[in-house]
Amino acid sequence: MDADATDRDRMLILGMLDTLLRAAHRLYYADLPLAEGVEMTLITNTIWLADHNGGALTKQKLAENTGIKRTTLYRRLDYLKSKGFIVERVERRGRGKDVYLAINPTILTRPTRLANVGRARNVITKTAKMLSRLPRRRRRH
Length: 141
Hints:
By secondary structure, the chain is mainly alpha-helical. The chain has helices at about 5-30, 35-50, 60-65, 70-80, 110-135; strands at about 85-95, 95-105. The protein starts with a helix and ends in an 8-residue tail after the last helix.
């Protein structure tokens, strides 16, 4: 495989990820340092994907899936709850209860949501077009 082509691929993908993460930071977490905003994006994406795939997460499972220390994660979750991004769903099981995390459904109805999704789609589509114009790699067998 051509090292230059690999580097071009890598740089295009890194540029796309950087653009998307900075946009999420600016739109949702501008009051936080960039690194914390990226962590918030990781947390909300992990919750959203798990919930969407029918496997809602507890705080402990979220800590395991993200690799974020639980003390740090709990602070991040408090922030996300205070901003209305996530909610906790309690399910009773016998004498105990499990607390699951979910994306607050009201954020899905915000007017800016479609515009934000559209901007992200444009960044991804632009990157995909640029990648498709690069020379094809030869596969090793």
